TrEMBL record:
Name of this protein: 4-oxalomesaconate tautomerase
UniProt source species: Streptomyces asoensis
Pfam family, one: PrpF
E.C. number(s) listed in UniProt: 5.3.2.8
Family, per entry: Belongs to the PrpF family.
A GO molecular-function descriptor: isomerase activity
Domain of life: Bacteria
Gene3D superfamilies: Diaminopimelate Epimerase, Chain A, domain 1 (3.10.310.10)
Keywords from the UniProt entry: Isomerase
Length: 358
């Protein structure tokens, strides 16, 4: 399925091995990793098209289904469960209805989803006229050609700290940053503080060796400050470079995931950026153009924009907290059938799993 601006393989949990190491080894063979082209599997030779959703009925009274996101590395034999994916999340509700995990409504269906990676929740609402998922519609999102049915995803306020370091600003390697987590651990950095404009093409930023070294240093230090420990083998936190908007948005972004520069921006990463921009004194707040009378924040990215509905409240001790976060995405079923994974005997390397199902 395509979910938002990503593409991945969606599985029922019962169709995969229960043991995480065996599951991950199988998924590497299914996706064709490790190989830059993923020529022998379903992967699309890019992190945005090498993703997996594992879905199952939920025992949680607050959810209908559990959704485990797995990022399958392209050129390394690694499978990581250390982050969520808000784009792949857009396809989970429709998939749950398609597979009979949730009964469809006659006009629309709301599916309550527990994101296993972080133990957070989301509700996805989408059209199901006549009790069937309808993927056609007029909703358009940047980075995806054409239009499709809208999938409205609403996130309840998280239980974790919006500012994981406890500070509105921190300094890492001489650079001012804001570390924020509104569903995705994210580090906000003014692009000019790293001697780039923030308007460069993703490939030009990826080819900047000096920039890559600075970003790695900042990410490793930010991971420790945010309580994530050693993130050298993890895909979080994300780093987002900020610049003044070029269009009618609030801010221009370039996001690293963590080495490749995202051709757009992830849903949960955008939710964290939007919340961060609303915090007085945060990095990027002075660059952003925000309508104080509206919850909507338009995040510009290399291929367009993403609109986030975001509002903040405060904790009893006066710290900022997320109050409301919602986004409109689209999803589409691309094919449904049987995948024939590469033989285990021909796999080039044994996988290294970065943590099992939690």
């Amino acid at each position: 399925m395509r979910g938002g601006t990503s593409k991945g393989a969606y599985f029922l949990a019962e169709d995969l091995p229960a043991e995480p190491a065996l599951r991950d080894e199988l998924l590497l063979r299914v996706m064709g990793s490790p190989d830059a082209r993923q020529i022998d599997g379903l992967g699309g030779a890019h992190p945005l098209a090498s993703k997996v959703a594992v879905v199952s009925p939920s025992a949680d009274p607050h959810a209908d289904v559990d959704y485990l996101f797995l990022q399958v590395a392209v050129e390394r034999p690694e499978v990581s469960d250390r982050q969520n994916c808000g784009n792949i999340l857009a396809g989970v509700g429709p998939f749950a209805v398609e597979r009979g995990l949730v009964a469809a409504g006659e006009e629309e269906t709301a599916v309550r989803i527990r994101m296993v990676n972080s133990d957070d929740y989301a509700t996805a609402t989408f059209p199901t006229p006549g009790g069937r998922v309808d993927y056609t519609g007029a909703a358009e999102i940047s980075g995806v050609p054409g239009t499709a049915a809208p999938v409205v995803i609403e996130f309840p306020p998280g239980t974790g700290a919006l500012l994981p370091t406890g500070n509105v600003r921190d300094e890492i390697d001489g650079v001012a940053v804001t570390c924020v987590d509104n569903g995705m651990p994210t580090v906000l950095i003014a692009a000019t503080s790293l001697k780039v404009t923030g308007y460069e093409l993703p490939r030009d930023l990826e080819e900047d060796v000096a920039l890559a070294d600075r970003l790695r240093t900042i990410r490793l230090a930010a991971g420790r400050l945010m309580g994530l420990g050693d993130v050298s083998d993890a895909t979080v936190p994300k780093l987002t470079l900020l610049a003044a908007p070029r269009g009618d948005g609030a801010v221009t972004t370039r996001t690293f995931i963590p080495v490749r520069c995202h051709p757009s921006i992830g849903v949960l990463g955008a939710a964290s950026v939007a919340a961060g921009l609303r915090i007085e004194g945060s990095v990027g707040a002075e660059l952003a153009r925000i309508d104080a009378d509206s919850d909507r924040i338009r995040i510009e990215h290399p291929t367009g924009f993403l609109d986030i509905e975001s509002s903040l409240g405060s904790t009893p001790d006066g710290l900022p907290s997320a109050r409301r976060t919602a986004v409109v995405r689209t999803a589409r079923k691309i094919f449904d059938g049987t995948v024939f994974p590469r033989s285990a005997e021909t796999a080039p390397l044994s996988p290294r799993s970065l943590g099992g199902q939690r």
